[in-house]
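Ticket #4471: complex job returned nothing on first submit. Input attached below:
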Amino acid sequence: MKNFEFINPVKLLFGDGQIAKIFNEIPTNSKVLMTYGGGSIRKNGVYDQVIKALEGFDVVEFGGIEANPDYSTLIKAVKICKENKIDYILAVGGGSIIDGSKFIAAAAKFDGDAWDLIVKQLPIEDALPLASVLTLPATASEMNSGGVISRRETKEKYPFGSPLLFPKFSVLDPTVIYSLPKKQIMNGIVDTYIHIVEQYLTTTDHYMVTDRLAEGVLKNLIELSSTLMADGTPDYDTCANYMLTATMGLNGWTSMGATADWATHMIGHELTALAGLDHGLTLAIVYPATMKVMRKEKHAKILQYAERVWNITEGSEDERIDAVIAKTEEFFIQVGMKVRLSDHAVGQDVIDTIVERFEERNQNLGEGGIVTPAHVRMILEDRL
Amino acid sequence: MKNFEFINPVKLLFGDGQIAKIFNEIPTNSKVLMTYGGGSIRKNGVYDQVIKALEGFDVVEFGGIEANPDYSTLIKAVKICKENKIDYILAVGGGSIIDGSKFIAAAAKFDGDAWDLIVKQLPIEDALPLASVLTLPATASEMNSGGVISRRETKEKYPFGSPLLFPKFSVLDPTVIYSLPKKQIMNGIVDTYIHIVEQYLTTTDHYMVTDRLAEGVLKNLIELSSTLMADGTPDYDTCANYMLTATMGLNGWTSMGATADWATHMIGHELTALAGLDHGLTLAIVYPATMKVMRKEKHAKILQYAERVWNITEGSEDERIDAVIAKTEEFFIQVGMKVRLSDHAVGQDVIDTIVERFEERNQNLGEGGIVTPAHVRMILEDRL
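Support reply: We reran it on our side without changes. The output follows.
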């Protein structure tokens, strides 16, 4: 096991009716920027509950943050923070809103060109305190200190992060799932699944603790997915277990002292930036090929994954690996994904651009930089 | 799933050589009380490493805290804190030292009779900041906000806790395990195992997330125990995985939204207070009977435990339950425990006193208070 430092100070307020507790968690007399997206929170009652919980605070609203939050949108909120001397941000939404709000929190305390925090990865030395009310389980942004933002102008999408960007608290009310479109649940299931395998399906250097955690999360996702994706509204316990499972997908618990991959995410970000595909969808498309192309390097761990997560124990090692790659792809299809680039009118030109970008940046991916731009080409061409 | 609040802000510094990082974690100019036990840290090199890491700080030492830390010892340290205006406590040791230091941290900021914090459970409203260097994996005190202290004078032992008592940071260096006596490793394995089953082997109300976490910890303990208990020094990865597993046994991760039992711990505390048995040993003695006596109430969860942790799937439900109770007891014996009260010269008189104590306090135990004093009698008499 590698040496590591771990901290995750996020307070979770979990359960039906917890939104009302916001009032006691935000310091009195705070001037609050309430951020949200396209307005679904007005339909499902969350907006009203949050506004009620914020009675007595001076609140400025900033709606309209889009999926894959855009720099040009967020920078408007940064201006509002500076002009209005905002001292607390409450993000009400899914991963895009929370990620975007983390950028706003950092940029509001930064004097230079805020895009440099992203593209030059300048150290984030100060940030407004922020908290979240989660409305869409998927990214675990509600319990981590990172985010991803896009710049459509230049078709770019990059991750960023800082320990200063952990939410002070996050409200996880499972009833928000009742009104989610199935497509968003589908994306969230796959996003969480890939978060875990990116941290798990690497090497077998004795990470017993994180391995068991990761396998537990994957098994829960598989077990929960059919109920979540069935017609009609899922029951409370299914929603609650799914919400907590999604949060565990990327809250740091499964990465303590372990190696991590993240090649699929980096390739997926490029697919979103260049072709506009949903984040979860890009992962479902790419991951089966990541397993296939890197099967030699990931050999031992794929076998462990096959046995412990999918109970595949029959056949030769190669047969078991083939079987579990097929099983993984089949799972994404069963959840509802169309897992080929051709299903989404993405062709060779996009692949060429992506590979060129990694070549230009001289950027290898994956655990120990084992995924070269040539591998990226093989991975994407496998998915045509 | 029940509603819950969760927070665990402890920073872990994990790995070989991490003790040196203490210097950067404690605020400059702090006056530090360094607490420790009977002197094993002088033999294994930890004392020297800590002293070196504290160079530049004003340090007062307080050694001699015993296993099952005693009120009369700790109150001397409280006096030292007040007289010397101590503003940071660094506990160097196992659960007893860290638990005792949590009491010192709270009592040093309390003006009344500090025993009332324990016996009357007065709210802890202020505490000195504290941190730990763990030398004995077992209690997870390094990553939680509770403790247990004893008063030999009156043969009492009680738990206490407050969010103010989370360590600011804890150093987990797996190499400290190299020099541990096997008896202490044995106690730690069983302590961790019982921590988990106290949080897990209760009801089956759909706690999918915490169930998988708990089952993972139990399987790791079973897998690690033979290497840990074999003759000679265990390898680094075994020690590292065990240390992290023990911390996960009681850091709150496995109790989110789940029901908890703790009857075995409460009965075990009485056995330690009255008969002086080691904490881990009391748990190994009591737990098989807790399963046996409460088998009807825990029916469904025992079956889940049998299947998922011990792969017991053959036979009728009753046969599987019998088999897994036997298997659990056998595991404690294999680890090295003598699991009968008669093995330790504890007889009916101690049982009578324990039952009387619970009767006098009108105290039911277990999930939902299902374990009555009459059940406690059945449990203990089964273990004669």
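The first strand of chain B starts at residue 4 and ends at 6. Closing as resolved unless it happens again.
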